Amino acid sequence: MEDIFQETDLFEGLSTDQRDKIIKKGFHQVLKPKSILFQQGDPAERFYMVNTGRLKLTKLNEQGKEVIMRYIGAGELTAAITSLKDWEYPLTAESVEDTEVTGWDKAGVLNMIETYPKIAINLLNIVLTRIDDIQHRYLELSTERVEQRVARTLLRLMRSAGLKKTEGILIDLPLSRQNIADFSGTTLFTVSRTLSAWEKKGWIKSGREKITITAPHSLVLFSENA
Amino acid sequence: MEDIFQETDLFEGLSTDQRDKIIKKGFHQVLKPKSILFQQGDPAERFYMVNTGRLKLTKLNEQGKEVIMRYIGAGELTAAITSLKDWEYPLTAESVEDTEVTGWDKAGVLNMIETYPKIAINLLNIVLTRIDDIQHRYLELSTERVEQRVARTLLRLMRSAGLKKTEGILIDLPLSRQNIADFSGTTLFTVSRTLSAWEKKGWIKSGREKITITAPHSLVLFSENA
DNA sequence: CGCTCTATTGATAAACCTCAAATACAGTGG
DNA sequence: CCACTGTATTTGAGGTTTATCAATAGAGCG
User: Fold this and answer.
1) Can you tell me which residue has its alpha carbon closest to the C1' of nucleotide C25?
2) CA distances from B165 to A156, B54, B171, B211, B220 (A)
3) For B100-124, how does the pLDDT look when each residue is reduced to its tens digit (9 = 90+)?
4) What domains lie within chain A, and their CATH numbers?
């Protein structure tokens, strides 16, 4: 798999040694698939970085309806600044596969920043990227039709978890119709119908919790113009 | 008007003197109503703080459909960290009334942070509050019905721009049905119908570009339970 | 092989948008 | 002060999109 980071690495500008030193100080944790790392509403004690595997970040509303805010993989952070304030986690983090994370508490972050000020800048960059992303998605949710949003969701997942295969690009995580719906702001039925249509067109191939994008370009065109 | 800030003040923890000194170094600008301060896509040279008046922050999609991301008033910031990177403004800022702003460029911010490190922390807090807010709204947009979202929009505006009057709380900015629609992710027609219904129930009183909330409690109940 | 979870598909209904037409309102210039 | 003009708003009719519900089929696992 290629090393594509959509955002600044937390350790950008630091040497491998410095990086290793910081990681050694962190709190390491291994998660089986479908384990909860932390839950929306819990006091935010630590922030985490994913080493391997993948986390699903979700938010629940009062009626218990779930929305997927994002999936994060190797090198990406969650709850980065929430843990700096004495706040509650604004969302729930759950592993979707075998996952290893490193966590630091408030003192750890402050220490880290003090020793390597560049980290504060990197943090700001990461946060800015997040705001940009969520604002973009807000705009899409507000102005675009369901099928278009589903297309964008698949493309996002492809970029962050895509694995090149002979038939196309496999989205390398267990992904149900319900997951796609929660990520796109629709229902699993609509997603199912949409994917069936795309499969007939030859744009994708799909199985149980598995999707391969066979015609990315068509999907991109559709997501932008339809 | 009361001094209600939903977010940390940029100058929290600083003395009035220090605050004044920083403000004096800024770039001051006076805007007539409906002036553009900066436009989505322009290179982000400065970030701004509102002194008096109010800015509308909007984002356009490729098809030219507009979404209102937020209104900001006295003490609030926009483009805070975008200007730190050499990026483009991700949205457009337009005054909705006579407005005075102070701006600082990248060098100004860095200088500010160096002299008063507390400002970096305040910045992080502000950014965090923003992320929280936009994620909340994303959840709402994704899971709630139009009328509920309109109710939430009115309540948000009430909290940030409410002015106590004898009949109720006036939202103190020129606010068309279209504006409310752009803020709630719907159309002006649906907003109009909704407001008419609420006016019949006695929850609000409305005129041309003007809305007074006469029964805030009912609206809150509705926004949470319906 | 049977159990459970996921996915498909169809029928129906609800929510909401689009478009058209009429009306109300605020300012402007005579 | 009044008519005029340009917006803003209201309301109705009709259509589209999408959700909901129900029933069935398929996949994986012990």
Assistant:
1) B208
2) 48, 20, 10, 12, 19
3) 999 999 999 989 989 998 898 888 8
4) 16-141 (2.60.120.10), 145-225 (1.10.10.10)
